[in-house]
Design a protein that fits this description.
Blueprint lengths: L7 H15 L7 H14 L8 E3 L3 H10 L4 E3 L2 H6 L16 H10 L3 H6 L10 E4 L3 H12 L7 E4 L7 H11 L7 E4 L6 H15 L5
Parallel strand pairs: 2-3, 3-4, 4-5
Antiparallel strand pairs: 1-5
Protein name: Precorrin-8X methylmutase
Pfam families: CbiC (PF02570)
Family: Belongs to the CobH/CbiC family.
Length: 212
């Protein structure tokens, strides 16, 4: 018989113990550490905290938005798939499958995720926005905010890839104060829907008093 750990509770516990041992978390607040631990667990890379930035009031803004049951908006379906349904207080929205979004994206030769962002306008004020894949969606969001669209409470910027993602996230970080935004940003080419959803799951867990 191969000797390996089988007990799910012990596996769960030891995952968190190893993350705390391996990840550099000391210079983050306790609440920020909770978010990072879930992100590291989802991503499998203890170096990830070196690439995550929190704006000054990101956690408190998230808490207020969750308490008020504000809208949740996301860019790609993977984000929704990874969100823990047992923690959600409402159905997240994306509009990716909307017929007009699909049609306009094709005719304008732009991404569906970017096109769908225009449908966010009525739901954007004080919402929590999860960008887990599309740099173009994040760019379009920033354009809309500069045009006067209402600001969300929090943007989780975790777009990934080698085109658009890194500069879009850098622009978010550089302009978040000017735009009146709180944000959590995964810098560089790292990212993905799993990371955006993991951060959101952590925020929802903390709101319910669940800490690891």
């Amino acid at each position: 018989m191969i000797n390996f750990l089988r007990d799910p509770d012990r596996i769960h516990q030891q995952n968190y113990e190893r993350i705390r041992e391996l990840a550099a978390l000391d210079h983050f607040t306790l609440d920020q550490q909770q978010v990072l631990i879930q992100m590291v667990r989802a991503y499998g890379d203890p170096d990830l905290p070196n690439y995550v930035q929190f704006s000054a009031n990101a956690i408190s803004a998230a808490r207020k938005a969750i308490k008020k049951r504000n809208n949740l908006l996301y860019d790609v379906e993977l984000v929704k798939q990874v969100l823990d349904e047992s923690l959600l207080y409402q159905e997240p929205m994306s509009f990716l499958g909307k017929a007009s979004v699909i049609s306009h994206a094709k005719t304008s030769k732009q991404t569906r995720a970017m096109t769908a962002v225009d449908c966010w306008k009525p739901y954007l004020e004080d919402a929590i926005v999860l960008i887990g894949q599309s740099g173009t969606a994040l760019y379009r969001l920033l354009e809309m905010l500069k045009e006067g669209a209402p600001a969300p409470a929090l943007v989780i910027g975790a777009a990934r890839g080698f085109v658009n993602a890194e500069p879009a996230k850098r622009l978010l970080w550089e302009q978040h104060e000017e735009l009146g935004l709180e944000c959590i940003v995964v810098s560089g080419t790292r990212g993905g829907g799993v990371l955006a959803a993991a951060a959101m799951n952590a925020l929802l867990m903390m709101q319910q008093g669940r800490y690891v």
